[in-house]
Amino acid sequence: xxxxxxxxxxxxxxxxxxxxxxxxxxxxxxxxxxxxxxxxxxxxxxxxxxxxxxxxxxxxxxxxxxxxxxxxxxxxxxxxxxxxxxxxxxxxxxxxxxxxxxxxxxxxxxxxxxxxxxxxxx
Length: 122
Prior knowledge:
Strand content: under 5%
Largest sheet: none
């Protein structure tokens, strides 16, 4: 939802973010995976967690490459980059990782319970 709002704002020029087509791709991927999670797909839940982690890691890495003008990156640069790149900071990113991990756990547990109930009735 937040991704869609930021992308829509960027497309309309109402926020301080420049619109790129990769933002639209991000919205479409997130929407597809969200639909899969809604339909209780374990694969979609695992892919959403992986997609979030990889996207944020690449974002931080790109930010660090842009900061590396003096031949090296200090630990403080990494922490600053993490906090700046992860929308809302490290706390929000941590909460989202926990929620996505809970989604993976929930879909796996739901399928396991469904399989057990199915074999008890069959």
